[in-house]
Amino acid sequence: MHHPRLSPGRWTAVLTLLLVGASSARAQLSKEATDKSVSNEKAEDAARAAKWLQSAFRGQTTPEAAEMLIAIARGSRMGPGEGWFHPGQGRYGWKWLADKHGIKLRESIPRAKFAGSEALFARLDRNKDGELRADDFDWSDRSFYAQQTYMISFWFYRINREADGKLTREEWLKFFDEAAGGKDHLTTTNLREALFTMPPPKKGTVPDEPTAEMLVRGLFRGEIGSMNEGPKLNDAAPDFTLKARDGKDRVHLSDHFGKKPVVLVFGNFTCGPFRTIYPRVDEVAQRYKNDAIFLFIYVREAHPTDGWRMGSNEEAGVSFAQPRDYGERATMANRCGTRLKMNVPVLVDEMDDRVGHAYSGMPARLYVIDKAGKVAYKSGRGPFGFKPEEMEQSLVLLLLDSPKAPAAAATKTGAGAGK
Q1: Among residues 20, 40, 60, which one ends one of the domains?
Q2: Could you point out which of 134, 295, 315, 322 has its C-alpha 20 to 30 Å from the C-alpha of 192?
Q3: Which residues contact 313 (CB under 8 A, 6 or more apart)?
Q4: Which segments within 93-196 are labelled E, that is strand?
């Protein structure tokens, strides 16, 4: 083959470069083949371990910790519905409410026939159609409401640059200006590109995707969740005494029993989904501040820099190692409370994670405890099971089940109930 623009000497140089490149490529392919072989061996070992674990519990209820370990060994990257990410559990639901109103499950409850205040009805009527139906109480991941929530949450995360769960007017306008690119309007193409084109990570930022080894370490450290499963529905809530984040006041859980229902909120600063979702918990707490007691328990960090490190945390300015003593954990609790502008009292778990383990509260979880000190609602494990609206619904139904269903306090906040 002859090329008029290359002399024989240049052709020799090009051929040499090609041969050197081919040699380097073979070396790279050899390395990749070796790495792939090692990777395949690890995958095969993990698959065998998963199969063995599964067989060990055949015919029995598999512990949640084993479920999670099996999922990790099979290649799970902590997705919804995998491992120990089960739905929340509640004493009350649509069947209970339908029975209370003397209707069949396929029927509905109009506002005029609801046995409660207008404010409480508004909180249960999720689609705001003026009637309560079974789908208002469907919290499965396949429900229409859940699908809407996932999409809105994705948009919200993209626009909420402060990653504090509160989308400000300034953030909204900044997003519009960037998406519009100097125009005074947006087209659907502009909006799609702005929302779904992921910006390149900042230089030096670590990826959020975990390795299997990282997940196993996080499992045994209690960072991705406690191996304990916490109390079951209708069990007595484990009692505890913890210090407030100022280090002065002490709160004894059972002191509140017999007075009002108690809502327990578990979370930590380095859990990104918790930071984004928490403001919705605070809104629920404000709505029912006269009807229930809300307590936030600060637990072990989910994504410390010396564990499952998250690049998204670094971009949000939340980059910290796992606290080494109680003082450091209290400092983190203060940072979290200040950043999220928490109105709920903040308690700090001990370094042995006694309350976090007792309730299986890591990395985030919600409980509703009735006046008798029994569990009336237990959310799924965070982040996927951390659903403030589901918790609120259980709290509303618990209040309706009380001899004197509170209407006054809820009605006072009723003006903003649908906001």
Answers
A1: 60
A2: 315
A3: 270, 272, 303, 319
A4: 109-110, 131-132
Q: Which residue has the tokens 């859980």?
A: 253
Q: How far apart are the first and last CA of the chain?
A: 75
For residue 377, give its domain range. Answer: 200-416
Sheet containing 250-252, strands listed edge to edge, beginning at the edge strand earlier in sequence: 89-90, 375-378, 365-369, 262-267, 293-298, 346-348, 241-244, 250-252
> Which residues, other chains included, contact 86 with Cβ-Cβ below 8 Å and sequence gap of 6+?
64, 380, 381, 385
**132: in domain:** no
pLDDT beyond 50 at 393: yes
Amino acid sitting at position 218 = G
Single out the residue of 276, 317, 280 nearest to residue 160, CA to CA: 276
CB 180 within 8 A of CB 190: yes
- Which residues 6+ apart lie within 8 Å of 295 measured at CB? 251, 253, 262, 263, 264, 265, 344, 345, 347
Rounded CA-CA distance 277/272 in Å is 9
Residue 27 resides in a domain: yes
As for how many domains the chain has, the answer is 2
Assign residue 5 a region (left: φ > 0; alpha: ψ between -120 and 50; beta: otherwise): alpha
Closest alpha carbon to 268 in 359, 383, 367: 383
> Residue for token digits 């490529």?
25
Q: Are 262 and 369 in contact (CB under 8 A)?
A: yes
Residue 302, CA distances (Å) to 27, 58, 268, 361 in order: 40, 31, 7, 11
Angle at Cα 260 formed by Cα 239 and Cα 341, nearest 5°?
A: 80
Q: Beta strand 262-267 with 293-298: parallel, antiparallel or unpaired?
A: parallel
* DSSP annotation of 264: E
Give me the sign of the Cα torsion angle 416, 342, 206, 177. positive
CATH number at residue 318: 3.40.30.10
List phi, psi (to 5°) of 40. Answer: -65, -40
Summarize pLDDT for 70-90 with one digit per residue, the tens. Answer: 999 998 878 888 999 999 999
